[in-house]
Amino acid sequence: MTELQKAIYEFIVSSGGVKKEEIAKKFGISLLEAENQFALLRHCELVKGQKRADGVHLVPF
């Protein structure tokens, strides 16, 4: 895992779930890059998407 992926994973865990837009803003990356990082973390079964009332949140697996 890269340092960015570790930081994103820790942010998701500590927040209890975040939207992709929040990740992009916090880490200064594009929404597309946030989606790519999420795809890699999902492939490793570290995070998953969860539907909530206000949209899809990324949460620990």
Largest sheet: 2 strands, antiparallel
Estimate what percentage of residues fall within beta strands.
15-25%
CATH superfamily: Winged helix-like DNA-binding domain superfamily/Winged helix DNA-binding domain
Q: What is the terminal-to-terminal distance?
A: 16 Å
Task: Output the number of helix runs.
Answer: 3
Q: Give the count of structural domains.
A: 1
Radius of gyration (CA) equals: 10 Å
Count of individual beta strands: 2
The succession of helices and strands, N to C, reads HHHEE
Average pLDDT confidence is 95
| Category by helix and strand content | alpha+beta
Which strand order does the major sheet show? 1-2
The CATH topology is given as Arc Repressor Mutant, subunit A
**If classified by CATH, what would the architecture be?**
Orthogonal Bundle
What percent of residues adopt helix (DSSP H or I)? 55-70%
Assembly context of the chains: single chain
Residue stretches low in confidence (pLDDT < 50, at least 5 long) are none
